[in-house]
């Protein structure tokens, strides 16, 4: 980082929030040129975590000054993206906002007053500011790198101009919105950037004392403590980090079930927190579905490290495993873009036909995406495969046999990306995780990911060959039974794969809540298998990392459809063939000799016509992940009838904060990835420490009176299906039998994506008011969600608010400035609101919601209640509104729970699809 100088540059005047996501297709003729200080992504990659190196800044002479970076789509998982989707970040000139225009005015000021912020807050995605901070009315300036630091924070999963739900729940700032939140974000981003500068050092809070103004030291404490406790900094295997693990634990016992990446990440973090940790692992090794096996043989003792499980680091921007690899001194090898395809006869696929079919395939996926929006709730019960096949037939374009084979190859590639048959993937939500992807290149770790596992398992107390049969949990603690041994602990973390949970091989006493059982059942858990082959020498060349092969049998389209060359990273001539889709299931019963014979036939068909002899392999290994009792599959996907909400449900703890869950199937943002599993372990370590600390201080962890936050949220959502009063984007519920003007009412305000049209009653000045400063760079993980904020008012105040003219903008201003109330998330309503909700529910009695009555009248009477609710829920997630304020009163439902968001006002929209999977 460069120290600040006397002349502030174009970024030093502003917090890292004056960004807007643009659709690159709406920007005419952008002229990107690389940022000089950002290194391109070479192969190998020596530093996967600095400022995103694929970001570009546009030519200043261009009419559109933007920063942009490209993200490959999930559909391109096994093959590089030809045309990438880009994020674009505006590049702003020096100056502050002119209150009367949309343009910047030149200024040498290094701060912005509260009044300037208030002028923009109405259009920001931050909640309205209630009161100016006592200590300062200025945005602080830490250094000249606020924009670069904001981008780094973005890669770590933080919005550039708002708080995450987790930060809000942790109470990192006293008031949501306004200058204090902006300063917190600046400090948070600065700490993250400092950590990324040198991930070998322990970042201490004292390092920032001199650079952060004294009046913001409370915010420094808050940001630093949050980032450390939640594992965003100071994690991994660097000596400076390992030194922080206390020699003698002084906190309660914790048992972690499973020594995969999730379990190891949680174990190391809990040990550093001072807990006594025991890890139970059923296998004889650590790593779980990440398994690097040494293969060797031959007269010259050829050897190589074969990745039989998770192999590809899917995205390096902010990837925590990339940081661990960096701490180990490892370089990453970028998976190169070249991926030729070969026909049945071994000839290369014609380039023009390849492009034609690939374009058609992507066009079908785009049509499927539009179809699900039009279908609404019906798409929940439709598979992606059904939609694609229908479009393929309806298009009516004549295709020859080779084109059909090529189309089926793309289907196999898609099934590989999702570890599931397209006939079982949800049309509505199969790609729900795409906006959250890390971004950046896909990479191999030379020597294998087993190096990560080995480093993470070092000095962690792991008991191997301990198969857990029973987990008994209650208010007093947890008993984990493995064989004839009973392990008693204060808390336990279950990280077993979804396939094991589906099988029921672990008995939970008491049984898991029904909503969790239903989520386990709904989510899909697919299969990918591999054939690893060690050859005497590299006959296929070292100029590519992947190549593919077509099949003429649709049922076998995934059989050895893609080959990975590991010769450059495995230490020897290693080739791995992938088996995906239906073929992966059939492969489980295929004799290994038959599998190897088939692979060699394919390779000989490709290389012998080129005059290249294909030798017999020295050693081969065939995986059977579906038959492995400790995995029973490869990785999760969103099956028909499921949604991203089910990942959240699987992540919920049970037993009053005694039993927790982690693993790739518990992370909505990063499922089916190695880094997702790792991050879920860090997440649950923070949750477990929070509960333990609360118990030690005899503080009850915040939750609803029903002891089930989701049940209480669901109740509130049900009540708002039939609000007593609606105006604009405001809806109200209050007791029907009580007309007292002073009686309590609950107000809900619904916000959606960035406003593109004027709102009700807004004036031209309001439509084009100066909003640039607080227009959000909404990160690629929260752009599809709506925002619901609440407050408690009297009936009289509600009626006064309804009469305010000028649209929702003026109502918001009246609500916050005139009435002086604070809009909060569901959790922030408090016990008083809980009592009001309970009273309203009691007064309404058993009256059926209008939506249910309507469904019955329209012939949906055969649907079960739970099914009907899910359909209503899914529609809210698929049908999207272009306006900033979203009118549908039921759109806050996700599987019957309220989206407890107090993050920001106005969600931005940018569809960016990128890949991710655990195996691969």
TrEMBL record:
Residues 29-51 have a biased composition (Pro residues). It comes from Trema orientale. Residues 22-109 are annotated as: Disordered. Residues 143-244 form the SWIRM domain. One of its GO terms (molecular function) is oxidoreductase activity. Residues 52-66, 98-109 have a biased composition (Low complexity). The keyword Glycosyltransferase does not apply. GO terms for biological process: chromatin organization; methylation. It comes from the Eukaryota. Belongs to the flavin monoamine oxidase family. This is Histone lysine-specific demethylase.
């Amino acid at each position: 980082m460069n120290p600040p100088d006397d002349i502030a540059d174009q970024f030093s005047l502003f917090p890292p929030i004056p960004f807007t996501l643009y659709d690159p297709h709406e920007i005419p003729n952008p002229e990107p040129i690389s940022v000089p200080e950002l290194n391109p992504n070479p192969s190998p990659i020596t530093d996967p975590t600095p400022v995103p190196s694929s970001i570009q800044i546009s030519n200043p002479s261009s009419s559109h000054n933007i920063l942009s970076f490209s993200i490959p789509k999930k559909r391109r998982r096994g093959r590089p993206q030809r045309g990438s989707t880009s994020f674009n970040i505006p590049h702003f000139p020096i100056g502050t906002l002119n209150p009367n225009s949309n343009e910047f005015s030149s200024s040498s000021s290094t701060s912005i007053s509260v009044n300037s912020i208030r002028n923009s807050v109405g259009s920001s995605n931050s909640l309205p500011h209630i009161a100016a901070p006592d200590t300062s009315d200025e945005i602080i300036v830490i250094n000249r790198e606020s924009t670069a630091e904001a981008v780094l924070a973005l890669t770590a999963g933080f919005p550039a101009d708002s708080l995450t739900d987790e930060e809000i729940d942790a109470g990192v700032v006293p008031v949501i919105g306004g200058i204090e939140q902006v300063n917190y974000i600046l400090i948070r981003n600065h700490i993250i950037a400092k950590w990324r500068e040198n991930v070998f050092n322990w970042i201490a809070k004292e390092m920032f004392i001199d650079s952060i103004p004294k009046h913001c030291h409370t915010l420094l404490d808050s940001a630093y403590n949050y980032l450390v406790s939640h594992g965003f900094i100071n994690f991994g295997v660097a000596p400076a980090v390992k030194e922080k693990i206390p020699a003698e634990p002084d906190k309660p016992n914790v048992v972690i079930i499973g020594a995969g990446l999730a379990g190891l990440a949680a174990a190391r973090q809990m040990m550093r927190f001072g807990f006594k940790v025991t890890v139970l692992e059923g296998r004889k090794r650590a790593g779980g579905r990440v398994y690097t096996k040494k293969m060797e043989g031959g007269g010259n003792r050829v050897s190589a490290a074969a990745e039989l499980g998770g192999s590809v680091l899917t995205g390096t921007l902010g990837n925590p495993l990339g940081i661990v690899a960096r701490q180990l001194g490892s370089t990453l090898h970028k998976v190169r873009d070249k991926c030729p395809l070969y026909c049945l006869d071994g000839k290369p696929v014609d380039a023009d036909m390849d492009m034609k079919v690939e374009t058609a395939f992507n066009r079908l996926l785009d049509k499927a995406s539009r179809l699900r929006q039009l279908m609404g709730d019906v798409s929940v019960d439709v598979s992606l495969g059904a939609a694609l096949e229908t479009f393929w037939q309806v298009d009516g374009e004549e295709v020859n046999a080779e084109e059909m084979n090529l189309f089926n190859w793309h289907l196999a590639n898609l099934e590989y990306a999702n570890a599931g048959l397209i006939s079982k993937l949800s049309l509505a939500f199969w790609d729900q995780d795409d906006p959250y992807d890390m971004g950046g290149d896909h990479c191999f770790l030379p020597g294998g990911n087993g190096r990560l596992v080995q480093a993470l398992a070092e000095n962690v107390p792991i008991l191997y060959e301990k198969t857990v049969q029973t987990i008994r949990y209650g208010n007093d603690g947890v008993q984990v039974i493995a064989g004839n041994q009973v392990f008693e602990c204060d808390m336990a973390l279950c990280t077993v794969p979804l396939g094991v949970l589906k099988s029921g091989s672990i008995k939970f006493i008491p049984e898991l809540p029904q909503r969790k059982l239903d989520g386990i059942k709904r989510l899909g858990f697919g299969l990918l298998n591999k054939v690893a082959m060690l050859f005497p020498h590299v006959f296929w060349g070292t100029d590519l990392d992947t190549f593919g092969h077509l099949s003429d049998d649709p049922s076998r389209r995934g059989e050895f459809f893609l080959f990975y060359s590991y010769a450059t990273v495995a230490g020897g001539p290693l080739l791995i063939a992938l088996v995906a889709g239906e073929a992966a299931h059939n492969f489980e019963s295929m004799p290994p000799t038959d599998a190897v014979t088939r692979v060699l036939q394919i390779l000989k068909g490709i290389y012998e016509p080129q005059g290249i002899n294909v030798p017999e392999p020295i050693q081969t290994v065939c995986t059977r992940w579906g038959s492995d009792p400790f995995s029973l599959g490869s990785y999760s996907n969103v099956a028909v009838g499921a949604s991203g909400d089910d990942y959240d449900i699987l992540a919920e703890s049970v037993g009053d904060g005694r039993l927790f869950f982690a693993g790739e199937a518990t992370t909505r943002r990063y499922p089916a990835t190695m880094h997702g599993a790792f991050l879920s372990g860090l997440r649950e370590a923070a949750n477990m420490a929070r509960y333990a600390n609360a118990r030690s201080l005899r503080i009850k962890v915040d939750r609803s009176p029903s002891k089930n936050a989701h049940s209480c949220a669901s109740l509130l959502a049900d009540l708002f299906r039939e609000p007593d009063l609606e105006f604009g984007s405001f809806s109200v519920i209050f007791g029907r039998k009580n007309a007292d003007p002073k009686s309590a009412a609950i107000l809900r305000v619904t916000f959606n994506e960035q406003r593109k049209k004027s709102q009700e009653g807004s004036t031209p000045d309001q439509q084009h008011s100066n909003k640039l400063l607080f227009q959000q760079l909404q990160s690629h993980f929260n752009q599809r969600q709506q925002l619901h904020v609440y407050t408690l008012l009297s009936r009289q105040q509600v009626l006064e608010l309804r009469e305010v003219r000028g649209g929702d903008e003026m109502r918001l201003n009246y609500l916050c400035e005139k009435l002086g109330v604070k809009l909060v998330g569901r959790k922030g309503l408090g016990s008083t609101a809980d009592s009001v909700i309970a009273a309203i529910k009691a007064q309404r009695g058993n009256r059926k919601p209008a939506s249910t009555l309507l469904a019955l009248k329209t012939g949906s009477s055969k649907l079960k209640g739970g099914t009907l609710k899910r359909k209503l829920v899914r529609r809210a997630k698929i049908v999207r509104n272009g306006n900033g304020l979203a009118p549908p009163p039921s759109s806050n439902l996700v599987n019957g729970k309220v989206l407890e968001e107090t993050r920001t006002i106005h969600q931005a929209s940018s569809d960016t699809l990128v890949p991710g999977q655990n195996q691969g």
